[in-house]
Specification:
single chain; alpha+beta; four-stranded mixed beta sheet; 11 helices; 32% helix
Length: 300
């Protein structure tokens, strides 16, 4: 018969066996563990209806005598409301660590069509979310990476998972790792939020999606022009210095900046800031000092 089949028990099952089987199935199909899963919700309704009938001695006697279709017909138009009367689901759910449902328990249910499991707002699991800081390198943020993280919560739970760091991530952003937060009483988990801190780079400075690098160059190169090798996040590149460039000028190298976080085909640019390198007195050779003195004499 349908109700016995739904609960996976035989017709001679005791009340305790029926309850034990229902608890096991409810643990699997309860809406708290299957948010948005329509098939699980329907299955939960079916096993709950079966339990409501078979756990009540009088309803079970009638059901055994009449069978599926005749039992339903005899109950009349209000069958799907009356079947849940006098069944204390709330206490069962609480024992299992689940939320209870309005209209489903001592006051009677609304039945399958009325959706008794939609009468109460689902539990807010955000209270089981946790937040941690994560430090990543400048080049990790530039290229993206994967890493294993593990730490312990204050309640003794251990978090151990592999995460993906997307290319272009900025400091202050949060990475959401779904289902890796603290465990709720019913076994569901909150989410883990990792607040990103990007470490400084010794050479490059990030400005939104652009990158800047300062290059100190000899005065002669700025005056006469020439070629200069500069570091970039994608390796060294040669750039051409035009004669007569001024101190502090920025040269743009297109598409060598950070990728956009949600559109990696778009990138920022790299700006090379050229500043004249003034040698110290210790760096000047007698020959170089003589040349500079001659330049000074001509007004340079």
């Amino acid at each position: 018969m349908k109700y016995y089949d739904l609960l996976g028990v035989n017709k001679n099952a005791s009340t305790d066996e029926i309850k034990k089987s229902y608890r096991k199935l409810a643990m699997q199909y309860h809406p708290d563990r299957n948010q948005g899963n329509k098939a699980a919700e329907e299955k939960f309704k079916e096993i709950s209806e079966a339990y409501a009938v078979l756990s009540d001695n009088e309803k079970r006697r009638q059901y055994d005598m009449l069978g599926d279709s005749r039992f339903s017909q005899q109950q009349g138009a209000n069958f799907h409301e009356d079947v849940f009367n006098n069944i204390d689901f709330d206490s069962i759910f609480r024992e299992m660590g689940f939320s209870s449902f309005s209209g489903f328990g001592r006051q009677g249910g609304r039945g399958r069509k009325a959706g008794p499991f939609r009468q109460q707002e689902p539990e807010d699991y955000s209270k089981y979310d946790i937040e941690q800081n994560i430090d990543i390198g400048f080049m990790e943020a530039y290229n993206g990476s994967e890493r294993q993280i593990n730490f312990s919560l204050s309640n003794g739970e251990k978090i151990d998972t592999r995460i993906k760091i997307p290319a272009g991530i900025e400091g202050g952003k949060k990475l959401r790792i779904k289902g890796h937060g603290q465990t709720a009483p019913n076994g569901r988990k909150g989410d883990l939020y990792l607040k990103v801190r990007v470490m400084a780079h010794p050479t490059f400075i990030r400005k939104e999606s652009d990158v800047e690098v300062e290059m100190k160059v000899p005065y002669s190169l700025m005056v006469l022009g020439g070629s200069l090798e500069v570091p970039t996040p994608q390796g060294n590149k040669n750039i051409k210095i035009r004669a007569g460039m001024q101190n502090g000028i920025k040269m743009r190298l297109k598409d060598l900046g950070f990728p956009e976080l949600n559109n990696t085909s778009q990138r920022g640019d790299l700006y090379v800031v050229l500043t004249v390198k003034v040698p110290t007195s210790e760096e000047l050779t007698p020959e170089a000092q003589e040349i500079i003195q001659n330049l000074q004499a001509t007004g340079f």
